[in-house]
Amino acid sequence: xxxxxxxxxxxxxxxxxxxxxxxxxxxxxxxxxxxxxxxxxxxxxxxxxxxxxxxxxxxxxxxxxxxxxxxxxxxxxxxxxxxxxxxxxxxxxxxxxxxxxxxxxxxxxxxxxxxxxxxxxxxxxxxxxxxxxxxxxxxxxxxxxxxxxxxxxxxxxxxxxxxxxxxxxxxxxxxxxxxxxxxxxxxxxxxxxxxxxxxxxxxxxxxxxxxxxxxxxxxxxxxxxxxxxxxxxxxxxxxxxxxxxxxxxxxxxxxxxxxxxxxxxxxxx
Length: 269
Hints:
51% of the residues lie in helices and 13% in strands. By secondary structure, it is α/β, with parallel strands linked by helices. An 8-stranded mixed β-sheet has the order 3-2-1-4-5-6-7-8, sandwiched between helices. Strand 7, helix 6 and strand 8 form a beta-alpha-beta unit. Helix 7 crosses helix 8 and helix 7 (163-190) runs antiparallel to helix 11 (246-261). The mean pLDDT is 94.
């Protein structure tokens, strides 16, 4: 099993670490977790993971380096580890929004293989929608990283110029769908349910809708057609939502998030 260093062990990094061990992709003792304050990593140390606040030292003896810091922290981290990165040995994976493979190589060297990955917070329960891109990684490394992230959800390989769009649709998208569920539960309260009942009903209904598409491989409109009848209550509700901009507001929100995601990192940052 390959040795892995996760630089910047926040929610995404820690969820990935747990997923890799749970799926037998790696052993806890082969994963180094770094964070400035390692007190936060005490439960992981007790579970057998290696923990460190020294990024340079952490990457020296591993095969895979996963960059999971905030965009504004990236240049400092790359400067720290630069001398320890060996293109013949290391594969670098970046899960940082808005940072291109080329930007990482600019700091670490043109020969370093870099794969850019965008999971979402559902990684915590093994249900991430992860998008992946690279402009120089080998087919073998692409396959390894695909298997790695399949331990925590689904993976789609895309062109790198679509990664900021993937951030908006999949990473920010978690919040958009959660807001829709919250709104549905509030509607449930207005029509007579207690808040906890309405939320449970809205959550399960949303889950059922998603599973219909995943399991049947159908288009949303074909499933919608099964619920709508002439002069019925479903079509009346759908049309009222559309008159008030339901679909268009969601589309506009995704477009704005994509624009914002492309500006999270600058070389000077």
